[in-house]
Amino acid sequence: xxxxxxxxxxxxxxxxxxxxxxxxxxxxxxxxxxxxxxxxxxxxxxxxxxxxxxxxxxxxxxxxxxxxxxxxxxxxxxxxxxxxxxxxxxxxxxxxxxxxxxxxxxxxxxxxxxxxxxxxxxxxxxxxxxxxxxxxxxxxxxxxxxxxxxxxxxxxxxxxxxxxxxxxxxxxxxxxxxxxxxxxxxxxxxxxxxxxxxxxxxxxxxxxxxxxxxxxxxxxxxxxxxxxxxxxxxxxxxxxxxxxxxxxxxxxxxxxxxxxxxxxxxxxxxxxxxxxxxxxxxxxxxxxxxxxxxxxxxxxxxxxxxxxxxxxxxxxxxxxxxxxxxxxxxxxxxxxxxxxxxxxxxxxxxxxxxxxxxxxxxxxxxxxxxxxxxxxxxxxxxxxxxxxxxxxxxxxxxxxxxxxxxxxxxxxxxxxxxxxxxxxxxxxxxxxxxxxxxxxxxxxxxxxxxxxxxxxxxxxxxxxxxxxxxxxxxxxxxxxxxxxxxxxxxxxxxxx
Length: 496
Ligand code: AMP
Ligand code: ZN
Fold this sequence. Notes:
Layout: E1 5-8, E2 13-16, E3 24-29, H1 40-58, E4 62-69, E5 75-77, E6 81-84, H2 85-93, H3 97-114, E7 122-125, H4 130-144, E8 145-148, E9 151-154, E10 189-194, E11 212-214, H5 216-228, E12 232-238, H6 245-257, E13 270-276, E14 279-281, E15 284-285, H7 296-301, H8 306-314, E16 322-323, H9 326-344, H10 376-387, H11 392-404, H12 410-424, H13 447-462, H14 466-478, E17 481-483, E18 493-495
Parallel strand pairs: 3-4, 3-12, 4-7, 12-13, 14-16
Antiparallel strand pairs: 1-2, 5-6, 8-9, 9-10, 10-11, 14-15, 17-18
């Protein structure tokens, strides 16, 4: 199978994936801070990580994927200023942080499931690794850290190439230096934050530097090292992490390894660093405080199937900005529906025996279906696209080419489509066209009532009683139901 090429943000180059451990792929993804619901922009980051994981499985690597849950340490400003996001929300809601974390972790998992994102090997929860974080910090403190009244700080001038990932000079961020008195460099950051004297935090632990809590950057370094070992293969996150969070993780990792500069990428702790670009709103960056907070649940309430949003994500390359619009979402839904309709014809065909994704690290010979001359062009296009830095927009067109291939054995066609969908994760064989019908939560009429009215209308038309048929149509229209006779997508009706 051809190589897998990925864009490494650290080198700013496309590189051929070569695993650290033969046959294996170890991936760490920065997970959510569970102080609030994720917005759909956050979920784009996990759809991207899922496509990466599925592609690695498809290419024959035995995947170990870790996604963390940040339940402590992330401040309102990534660059080490402000309050702990979790403490702040808990105070606002007058609830315990543990309850806040549980509620929003579960909400996040619901979105993960709805978007058909595969479960990682482990959800690593930051507060489960406090002892390891303290041990890691103790190991680097002498050479790389200094203590101030507010905490233990990492001195970024003690490692080579600080900020290379962000392509930033250490002087950048000058504005940050005033945040904490005594900081040696603007970019220095707290790896342990002491609880101020006289205060009590809901989450605090004893440490050699006094009671306090770990810094956010420390968490990911520690969980990455503990669960995957340095160096591991790929570290992912949203593009904002390229600027502060990941450069800081890298600095800690260099300190931990006692290794040199970043000309050797593995000194950073991972071989490849990958970042998805933002989902934006027309007005600019997506935010949890902006007017209509775009949660996946809002899309569902407006009647959209969540996988339409997954389709929307796949239609853009992960490194491009993607602008959200309701029209765009509706177009993505229609495209998904066309695919599901084409797949309906394949459902009856007997599937090929044996699974497609191999977990044992062996690369099996290409299956008979994939070398079938009729499907060769579509399959080669698919394979080249997904191997070309996860080019999902082209991979989708290859899937459509396969679906449009005529005069072929349906079992073979089914096997090809299943193989492609195992990478894209659109659940084409699990969805029906009814699942994809637009159904706003606020609809004044139930589906059973609509079906009943449509049956009466059909009977009236059969009797050539067009007056009754038109009256029923108007009745439905008054309740927001658009009757779509002869709709090529077989939708028959739509709730507006
Ligand atoms: P957070 O919960 O704030 O730590 O963010 C979770 C993930 O979402 C991180 O990988 C962020 O980089 C990513 N992210 C935040 N905003 C967006 C956005 N608008 N589009 C895509 N990814 C985002
Ligand atoms: Zn992280």
